[in-house]
Design brief:
By secondary structure, the protein is mainly alpha-helical. The chain has a domain of 45 residues. Helix content is 58%, strand content 0%. The chain is built from 4 helices and no strands. The longest helix has 21 residues. The termini are far apart.
Length: 91
């Protein structure tokens, strides 16, 4: 495979971390960087392939909720309403 030179200028913290990670995995910084780039591209490609149906696409973004909306609390209240409040001594 043909290679080319690429100069990066990370912060000292990032450079130290890269050296540490490469050493832990017994690979070079070049291999570490290449694996990162290829993995990132693969993940992006996979996300792009997930089909979004027309109904989901049509309703995306139409619901506005307040910034402080607590969906966990809403779910809990909905479940309690449907199934009744859990007994206090149960886990």
């Amino acid at each position: 495979m043909e290679t080319t030179k690429l100069t990066l200028r990370p912060t000292k913290t990032v450079a130290d971390l890269a050296h540490q990670m490469a050493e832990e995995d017994n690979i070079s910084i070049t291999q570490l960087f290449s694996a990162f780039i290829l993995t990132r591209r693969k993940l992006q490609t996979q996300r792009e392939r997930i089909p979004i149906g027309p109904l989901t696409r049509s309703v995306t973004g139409i619901l506005n909720v307040p910034e402080d909306w607590d969906y966990k609390k809403e779910m809990e209240e909905s479940i309690e309403e449907k199934h009744g409040k859990r007994h206090e001594n149960l886990p």
